[in-house]
UniProtKB/TrEMBL annotation:
The lineage of its organism: Eukaryota, Ichthyosporea, Ichthyophonida, Sphaeroforma. It catalyses: (S)-malate + NAD(+) = oxaloacetate + NADH + H(+). GO terms for biological process: malate metabolic process; tricarboxylic acid cycle. Residues 171-333 form the Lactate/malate dehydrogenase C-terminal domain. Belongs to the LDH/MDH superfamily. MDH type 1 family. One of its GO terms (cellular component) is mitochondrion. Keywords: NAD, Oxidoreductase, Tricarboxylic acid cycle. The keyword Oxidoreductase applies. The keyword NAD applies. This is Malate dehydrogenase. Its EC number is 1.1.1.37. It is an enzyme of class 1 (oxidoreductase). The active site is at H201. One of its GO terms (molecular function) is L-malate dehydrogenase (NAD+) activity. It comes from Sphaeroforma arctica JP610.
Length: 337
């Protein structure tokens, strides 16, 4: 259902001006809404004018988070749902589902070390999505993303509702970090600095394509190596700084909300481009992150690999075996009874 809404804005001169804005009636669920990412992500999504119903699901503490977020003066309805018995209600009618449910890393762990706990959580939640909102776009944040996206995809296949246009691994934080680090290094505004980041979301599978940064910038070998390594290890930088209390939450909430809002914009007819880890045929890996066009059908098209220099081509060759192994692990897990 769509409607046109009048909104009032106050200009610098203090004049009240009215403009027409198209707005849609979208339901968005956050699964893992009471967590370190889930709470700030819920807050940010409640501010998206396209969201008319924000459905907050977790195994604990959702009544408090929902009550808290619902007091902000935004139009959307906020509901809280707790535990498996309330998953159907949380998901029914959803257009977009954001999934940050699962445990985070502690120092010394890899993202793959989270597999044993998080794979089952994602499988269970994806099963709920396949049953109760099979047409929703899934934005999967839970690690290891390189495996959890294949898990969710296999679950949807088993239920006969798989649509590869609508299952996204959220790699936006890698792009946000790359834009920030390169912007700071080159003296450009990080919000206007754009670095494509391709591959997956773990260690060397995160491949920033610095040769294609806009505005165009030149990097010496040492600077290129240092920036590439920092972008690849940025998650670990936060895990170590948090010293055992978790991993990136605030920057991830920002990046996750940006991605989910851009998916919503696309559904609403406002085409836009984000890097995302999706089912793909641009390399020999079955899932791969590249820039994709978001639109009314979810992923409208995959823009494929950016141009790469020899250093980046070597990085691509090096990451494929690890990425394929993580994909295989996810597929096998999902198909195990
Ligand atoms: P957290 O422990 O603070 O929160 C996780 C939440 O998930 C908790 O509230 C927990 O109750 C909930 N949860 C657990 N099992 C659940 C289930 N079956 N159903 C619903 N909710 C459930 O962790 P966090 O810091 O928010 O991180 C969450 C996940 O996001 C981790 O796996 C982390 O590695 C990942 N992460 C990914 C990225 C990325 O770039 N994709 C970035 C940061 C973190
Ligand atoms: C990140 O990149 O910050 C997340 O994947 C969390 C982590 O474990 O590093």
């Amino acid at each position: 259902m769509s409607f046109t809404r009048l909104s009032a804005t106050t200009t610098k001169a203090g004049v009240r001006a009215f403009s027409t804005a198209r707005a849609q009636n979208y339901k968005v669920a956050i699964l893992g809404a009471a967590g370190g990412i889930g709470q700030p992500c819920s807050l940010l999504m409640s501010q998206d004018p396209r969201v008319t119903h924000l459905s907050l699901f977790d195994v604990v503490n959702t009544p408090g988070v929902a009550a808290d977020v619902s007091h902000n003066n935004f139009a959307c309805k906020v509901t809280g749902h707790t535990g498996d018995a309330e998953l159907e209600e949380a998901l029914t009618g959803c257009d977009v589902v954001v999934i940050p449910a699962g445990v985070p890393r502690k120092p010394g762990m890899t993202r793959d070390d989270l597999f044993n706990t998080n794979a089952g959580i994602v499988k269970n939640l994806a099963t709920g999505c396949a049953k109760y909102c099979p047409d929703a776009a899934l934005c999967i944040i839970s690690n290891p993303v390189n495996s959890t996206v294949p898990i969710a995809s296999e679950v949807f296949k088993k239920h006969g509702v798989y649509n590869p246009r609508k299952i996204f691994g959220v790699t936006t934080l890698d792009v946000v970090r790359a834009n920030k680090f390169v912007g700071d290094a080159k003296g450009t505004d990080p919000q206007k600095t754009h670095v494509p980041v391709i591959g997956g979301h773990a260690g060397i599978t995160i491949l920033p394509i610095l040769s294609q940064v806009t505005p165009k910038a030149e990097f010496g070998d040492a600077e290129r190596d240092a920036l590439t390594t920092r972008i690849q290890n940025a998650g670990t930088e936060v895990v170590e700084a948090k010293a055992g209390t978790g991993s990136a939450t605030l920057s991830m909430a920002f990046a996750g909300a940006r991605f989910a809002s851009n998916v919503l914009k696309g559904l609403d007819g406002e085409y836009n481009v984000e890097c995302s880890y999706v089912q793909s045929d641009v390399t020999s890996a079955e899932y791969f992150s590249t820039p994709v066009v978001l639109g009314p059908r979810g992923m409208e098209c995959n823009l494929g690999l950016p141009e790469m220099n020899d250093y980046e081509k070597k990085g691509l060759e090096a990451l494929l075996p690890e990425l394929k192994e993580s994909i295989k692990k996810g597929v096998e897990f999902a198909n195990k009874e």
